[in-house]
Specification:
The protein has about 675 residues and is mostly beta strands. It is built from seven helices and 46 strands.
Length: about 675
């Protein structure tokens, strides 16, 4: 598509978007090649080759030892397959370096949870993927800790900190000074402090996991966290709070250049939070943070349900530790925000958006004092590199939330304070009451005791307006030291189940599933390109602006709007940069094909032609062996444009059209999905 049209359509996607089973795709681990190393704690022998189950090693320690130390794997990865049973582990998992093409995978060979390991500590590992493992216990340490890790994936992992009661673990999952950390479909619980604790972690996601039963927070990312998505999780039964962006950090433990805010460009979407003593969500020193489309209940009973406050910054060990003081001063000289002493709570928050959430506290579980805690301005130390005053309400937007909590006159929590005053057009008492439904509409949800947060159809609260998610300019980010530009927009295409989202609402993590969508086809004669979309906003935009060069072909077909519904698939949409290429869009409903494109995108440097993941666009019926058990077949054709840098695909219903395209030189790629007609 032309560049100007690509930009127009991006605007439409922000308004309405498509349909996805998840906004964020899973990390693509690839299919090898691998050198397999089997481990059987009962029948194995460390003198064996480990190449097969029958030749299994006895210990994980031996399998780990056979991976070269401090050597990057290039041609062949390693897959350690643990049979069912209780395994011993190395005292310290250290300095094994997989690569994107040749990762190190450790997986439960007999199914998730069958391979049980004790608490473990990893250091300086790269491209390490843990799949289906069960970590338990610990004597006051952490269930799983990873320090200075690069590309760590936990998928289907259980970390049970209470397995060795009464003491258990301090943190369930602790990751520090690391980048590209991915947690998916995992269960993390039983911590004396926090179930999930990310310190100085940049890039990654926490997806579709259950994080619970912790004395302090269920989870937080802090210490210079950057570009992290927290989506589709369930946080519950924790003390100080549900999930928080930022908190407090020792200055010396932060990683340059991320030496300013506690958390930046963190997106908290489509989560459920329940039964927390503290606030459901918090931002403590955050920048360009979005907390949107979440549902929480029975939260904040000790004080309030939402908080935006300053982050803390200290120099841990100062003044006694000369090493700590030197490290803090080094970061300070770079331009980082902090001091070389005991510090304080004065890290500001900026551009925090809390949008379209549902918070429901039944009559027996109100917050004790108020709805919100929004901190008043403070004066940071002169040597901290911060300007005074340090505020948390600059760019703060709280809109579209449906809150049912306490009596009708329950205080907001900002009355008569020097924060969110009448001179702040984006956050003040009148605005908060106008742009949120606070104790005016009671949400009716299906079965919160069973964690079913779907809306009961017909409720008056469903008419409460929602608001579009933000676009960030990034022009106000810190410049000394210079930090990378974060993502400029936040996707909001679907709910946690995969149902279509509309900017009109309603709020909350779960929607009623939409009815059928219509996919429409368009043709651009100047490009000789075809384009299909299920987005009504995109269709309306193209048809209302013929000068853009796109003409409706009249081809239309029905698909579903819920990728999680029984008997449905998800069609994912990719796009190329209109200048760099490929100047087109691509759809696939095959997970393996999606993952291949994701891997290619990860492996291709920015600025080079590649397919970029955009969203899952609609929900067709799946094809089975190239045929459609139900619905009409949709055939994909390819113009072989890669040879001239001009690829394009067409999706057709009629066999006669497919044959005609083949005679014009297009390649038939087969039936790729089915309509719902």
């Amino acid at each position: 598509m032309p560049r100007f049209l690509r930009l127009v359509l991006l605007g439409f996607c922000l308004v309405l978007g498509g349909v996805a089973q998840a906004l964020t795709p899973p990390f693509p681990i690839g299919n090898g090649p691998w050198r397999e190393s089997w481990v059987d704690p009962v029948q194995g022998d460390d003198a064996h080759s480990g190449a097969t189950r029958g030749e299994a090693l006895r210990t994980v320690t031996e399998a780990w030892r056979r991976i070269p130390l401090q050597q990057t794997l290039i041609a062949e990865g390693v897959r350690i397959k643990l049979t069912a049973g209780t395994h011993t582990v190395p005292n310290y998992w250290e300095s094994r370096w997989g690569s994107f093409a040749a990762p190190i995978v450790i997986e439960a060979a007999d199914g998730a949870g069958t391979a049980r390991l004790p608490a473990s500590t990893f250091f300086d590992v790269r491209h390490l993927y843990l799949i289906g493992l069960h970590f338990s216990g610990g004597d006051g340490g952490d269930g799983l800790q990873c320090e200075r890790c690069h590309f760590l994936l936990l998928r289907g992992v259980t970390i049970d900190g209470n397995a060795t009661r009464p003491r258990g673990v301090q943190e369930g999952l602790k990751v520090n000074q690391s980048q590209f950390i991915f947690v998916e479909d995992s269960d993390i619980s039983g911590a004396g402090d926090n179930a999930l604790d990310f310190v100085a972690v940049q890039y990654g996601h926490i997806l579709n996991s259950r994080i619970h039963d912790a004395v302090d927070w269920c989870g937080y990312v802090k210490g210079g966290a950057f570009d992290i998505t927290v989506e589709g999780n369930i946080f519950h039964d924790c003390g100080n709070g549900g999930f928080t962006v930022g908190q407090g950090t020792g200055f010396q433990f932060m990683s340059p250049p991320f030496l300013h805010y506690e958390g930046s460009h963190v997106r908290v979407l489509n989560n459920l939070v329940h039964d927390t003593v503290g606030a459901a969500f918090g931002v403590n020193g955050g920048y360009n943070v979005t907390i949107a489309y979440n549902t929480a209940w029975r939260v904040g009973r000790q004080s309030h349900v939402l908080e935006v406050v300053h982050g803390s910054r200290s120099c841990d060990g100062a003044p006694a530790s000369a090493t700590a003081v030197a490290a803090c001063r080094e970061h300070q000289q770079m331009g980082g925000w902090g001091t070389a002493d005991e510090g304080g709570q004065w890290i500001p928050s900026r551009n925090v958006f809390i949008l379209n959430n549902v918070i429901y506290n039944p009559p027996d579980a109100p917050s004790r004092w108020q709805h919100f805690t929004i901190a008043t301005p403070v004066t940071p130390p002169a040597e901290s590199n911060l300007s005074a005053p340090a505020r948390v309400d600059e760019g703060l937007v709280i809109r579209g939330n449906v809150i049912w909590n306490g009596p009708a006159n329950h205080p907001l929590g900002i009355e008569d304070l020097a924060v969110c005053t009448s001179v702040n057009p984006d956050c003040n008492v009148v605005q908060l009451m106008r742009d949120n439904a606070i104790n005016t509409l009671e949400p009716a949800l299906v079965n919160l005791a069973g964690e079913d947060a779907r809306p009961v159809p017909g409720g008056a609260w469903l008419s409460a307006p929602a608001f579009g998610l933000p676009t960030f300019s990034n022009t106000d980010r810190p410049t000394r030291p210079a930090v990378p530009t974060g993502p400029s927009y936040v996707p909001s295409d679907t709910d946690r189940r995969g149902a279509l989202r509309s900017v009109a609402g309603p709020a909350g993590a779960v929607l009623l599933a939409p009815a059928a969508l219509i996919v429409a086809e368009y043709f651009a004669p100047a490009l000789n390109h075809y384009f299909v979309t299920a987005s009504a906003a995109e269709q309306q935009g193209l048809e209302a602006n013929p000068g853009l060069g796109w003409q409706a072909t009249g081809v239309r077909f029905a698909v579903g709007g819920d990728g999680a519904a029984e008997g449905m698939a998800t069609a994912w949409r990719f796009y190329g940069d209109p200048v760099i290429g490929p100047n087109s869009h691509f759809y696939t409903a095959v997970p393996e094909e999606r993952d291949l494109l994701l891997r290619q995108s990860w492996a291709t440097p920015a600025g080079s032609p590649r397919w970029n993941y955009e969203a899952a666009a609609f929900a067709p019926r799946p094809a089975v062996d190239g045929a459609c058990p139900a619905g009409r077949p949709v055939t994909r054709l390819y113009n072989l444009g890669h040879v001239r840098g001009d690829p394009n695909h067409r999706f057709v219903l009629e066999e006669s059209v497919a044959q005609a395209m083949v005679t014009q030189g297009w390649a038939r790629e087969g039936v790729v999905f089915c309509t719902t007609e």
